Amino acid sequence: MGDVKSAIAAGKAVLGIEFGSTRIKAVLVDEDRKPIASGAHDWENRLEKGVWTYTLDDIWTGLQDCYKKMAEDVMEQYGVKVEKLAGIGFSAMMHGYLAFDKDGNLLVPFRTWRNTITQQASEALTEAFQFHIPQRWSIAHLYQAILNGEEHVPQVDFFTTLDGYIHWQLTGEKVLGVGSASGMFPIDPETKNYYTSMIEKFDELVAAKEYPWKVENLLPKVLLAGDPAGVLTEEGAKRLDPTGTLQPGCPLCPPEGDAGTGMVATNSVKQRTGNVSAGTSVFAMIVLEKALKKVHEEIDMVTTPSGDAVAMVHCNNCTSDLNAWVNIFKEFAESFGVEVDMNKLFGTLYNKALEGDKDCGGLLAYNYFSGEHITGFEEGRPLFVRKPESRFNLANFMRANLYTSLGALKVGLDILMKEEKVAVDRITGHGGLFKTKGVGQKILAGAMDATVSVMKTAGEGGAWGIALLASYMVQKDAGETLEDYLQNKVFGGDEGEKMDPDPEDVKGFDEFISRYKAGFAIERAAVDSLKS
């Protein structure tokens, strides 16, 4: 306790703050990179005129409240004020569109990653670049605004992501970590900068419009993990801490996206490693050792914070329907006057699934609360389907709902593992699906036919991940790579609890996914017949 107090008082602590979809979280770490204090602020996006957005006021009040709670936690635990910091890092959900004019005025409300209003631009840019451009990417938003003839486009002087915006406001630097930048515009893994050929192609596409800008001049400068990215200005210090306690001058690391911080927090930045984050949505990130053979619309190409190529499979639906079914069992139990412990209920039902048939006994479920681009659905309808002869029991029912939580992900991963023959040495699972020990881990190992590890530290999340990136910038030795820093100084070789795939699970999941694909017509009929 005394050492931590002294470190904080001496300004040796490092702060990481991440803006998630529903929570802003701050984590303060000591010189050993251990979390020593935290703060959080809950927030929600809003649908305004058909656009999912947060206001600038939402951003700043949320950030200040989050920082204030972290500082209060420090005072409560250690009795000292946070006056100086050794480093700060900011992270946020990737993609989206924040566009500003030359005077720094926001031109249109922030368009978040959640918006699916750029299909025309996404398809046109994918065709022009021969590189998959998802709808949520920043360049798709800019091009869609151009296709729409929106009045603000000629005035754009700079556009960025949420983490890039906050960093800019606090340091004056228009920069972005390469991982976050790779969700704005395609990154060339060789140069670790925007693809020159695609920059030129974009300018050709819009040349007839005669805009007073070139797209390269609108984008943030790309930085790699460990690069200095500016310092906290006097004005920035007051915006972060309106009490005036925090002093300016602290160095900031390159702002990064939540995908990058997830890779860091799970020690998954090395080639042939990957991670799967499974909660409300689910995504897999696999660091490639060689380029994919062709473009796949199901696969997004991004990078690690060091600029190495990453194949990303992103799905909108994971545990929402599973949680809804668990709540049905909770209601059932409460109807008999039984008081329910939710952790015990989840654990009991999840473990029951392991008793089921490997192929779920012929049962089929779709967990689509919303659309799922990987399987071609613009809307979703949760479904449970069985044939009269299917083996319908609790174990198979729960197993089917666990399998389908990874169903769309499995479709995308099969492209990587089976078609592209991507090699993976280690996958780390994190998120709510893995809270019940050994169950989600076993299901994922079967889905991927790969060894899956689960780490205790993975629960620290992206705020810890960006704090690690800030610590790396401050502490790294000459020539020390991010991979070596994480492996040797942060995780100490700890790869978590490993689980190898059971061949019978692999076979059973393959049988389930064949049924899953064959049943798409059922889901399509539900979407078409049950209108919102």
From TrEMBL:
Q: Which positions fall inside the Carbohydrate kinase FGGY C-terminal domain?
A: 275-473
Keywords for this protein: Kinase, Transferase
- Which of the seven top EC classes does this enzyme belong to? transferase
| Annotated protein name in UniProt | FGGY-family carbohydrate kinase
Molecular function (GO) terms for this protein are: kinase activity
Which PANTHER family does the record associate with it?
Answer: SUGAR KINASE (PTHR43095), XYLULOSE KINASE (PTHR43095:SF5)
Which EC number(s) are documented for this chain? Answer: 2.7.1.-
Keyword Cell membrane part of the UniProt annotation:
no
Keyword Iron-sulfur among UniProt keywords? no
